[in-house]
Amino acid sequence: MADSLEPPTWPLMVFYGMSIASLPFYFVVFACLLRLRCFTTFYNTTFYSILLQHCIADLLAMIIFFAAVDARTYPFLKEYYFEYQHFYVAAASYNNIYYFLYVRCTGIIFLFFQRYLIITAPTSLITHKVQNASKLQIISVYWGVPTVISIVVLKDFNFSYDNLENMSIMADQEVIKRNTLMALIVVSLTCVICSSLYGSLFYYIRKHTAGLSRSLRREVHLAIQVFVLLLAFFVILAYYGFQNYFSQTQNTGPIFYMRALYPVANGLLSYINPFCILFLNKDLARQVTIFATCHKLPVSEVQVSTVNSHSTQRKHF
């Protein structure tokens, strides 16, 4: 009975709606952050460097999803994808989902870890090293760690499309079991680690509320932004919990049904970030508004941002 479940089409429609409403805004946020990093030191801190990489990961995940997954449903591309499916085309359609999942899982852990250090131990040696890490070091760690984790997934290439009409990806049952279990473990660890860090951070803030400086209170507001971003990972956790259960019980009908729901889960994971910035990061939200309305950033505001950045660093270290 379960095997006869037909994959729904409405999740893809919901995903299109989410993309139309969110993707242009995300590009505006991303372009604004890049612009600000060109002439203000305030947005060149470790937090914003990690956040920038997280934005890149979200946008790449969406672009590659459109190119590798959604594009194969269009008649003029079906034949091309089907003909060259064994040249890692079908494998890329499947493996990129797990790769970008692991990139964003490790990314949010790095964001939480940086928030935890800068608030609870601003003068420690490890915090000093994290805050003074070069852009190249941040980029290398951000992308290097999940790439190493993903080697298990990326090395698989034995995938194929069932037929030219449906273009559903067919994979070995053992590969599906391993990948869904691994995804469940990684997402579970992400939720546990980030929740533990946030719990410790919340306890520290409650204990030292009276002694928090103005600069540290700003860091706390950024921690709230990251926490809301974490909530999307609990949705992904539930998704892979069901997906792993169905794969372990070899219930192929629900596997394809859950796979059809992935665009909504992926869209939520990707598109929640710009709205967290809009509603929970007043400084960056103001700059996005200025950028979107094609106004120049006032010179005085640039100077204030630079002074605040240097002042914050002096207070912390």
Automatic annotation (TrEMBL):
Alphabetical keyword list: Membrane, Transmembrane, Transmembrane helix
GO CC, any one term: membrane
Pfam families, per the entry: 7TM_GPCR_Srv
Domain of life: Eukaryota
Entry annotated with the keyword Hydrolase: no
Entry's transmembrane regions: 12-34, 46-69, 97-118, 139-161, 181-201, 222-240, 260-280
InterPro entries: 7TM_GPCR_serpentine_rcpt_Srv, Neuropeptide-GPCR
Annotated protein name in UniProt: G-protein coupled receptors family 1 profile domain-containing protein
Organism of this sequence: Caenorhabditis brenneri
